[in-house]
Amino acid sequence: MFWLKKLLGTLLMPLPLGFGLLTLGILLIALRRRWRGWFALLLGWFVLAAASNNGISRALTASLQNTCPAAFVPGATSPASAPAQPIAFVAVLGGGHGDNPALPAGQQLSVSARARLIEGIRIALLHPSATLIVSGPKNEPDDDYPSHARILADAAVELGFPRDRIVEISTARDTAEETAALAQLAGRKPVALVTSAWHLPRAMKLAAAAGLLALPCPADFLGGREAAIPPRAWRSWSAEALGDSTRAWREYLGQFWAWSVRALLGPPLDAPNQSPLDKTSSPGLSA
Fold this sequence. Notes:
single chain; alpha/beta; Rossmann fold; 2 domains; 48% helix; disordered C terminus
């Protein structure tokens, strides 16, 4: 099921979907099925043009980023903005990295992972009793490179965060498994859930399904910095817009997949059978 989700998710992204439709259109025209071929060509062109449009891209990302605003401002002095219970855990969901031991851990992180980690560290420093949880498996299960959780932990230490306040979850492969592992670790204690703003709606739904008491903490915002989409955005196209649209589309497909699996198979599975915690990485902490 996991690999089927990954395969379908890859094929249905705007770039492979658009190129696939263009290729199909050329083949149909070559086979003298011209009307179907021209329709596939126009549809493929429309997918790529729409996904690359700055206005459409910002609208797609804003619809996700505005759905789940932060529940509180960590460390704020206003009682109205503070959580009902002290923060016990600050969980940073994985965002990807490249395996290159010649680089510092922080420079191996993707842009999203780095933004998530910085926000997680900021919140954890404002709550000295909180444990920082970092999550992510290896890029390739059989290689000798460290897991994504270890790279995140090492990057946090490089930034001055104490290693004895870090716990790693290195076996969860996706957000559903991450939230299940977090629920297993945290129980009913509140968890500041840090992830990209465009990923937070799906993460919060999966957290609720896993029984995790999660407080949304968005990071890594996409799109322009204006409060509203400027008219010029609808008249311009860019590769950056295509990337942002792809991230938003992946989230919509992920939400649809989670709803479909829940409707067909019932509640999500529990955390992986093996312990999700890499206890050797954080001396002085026990799960």
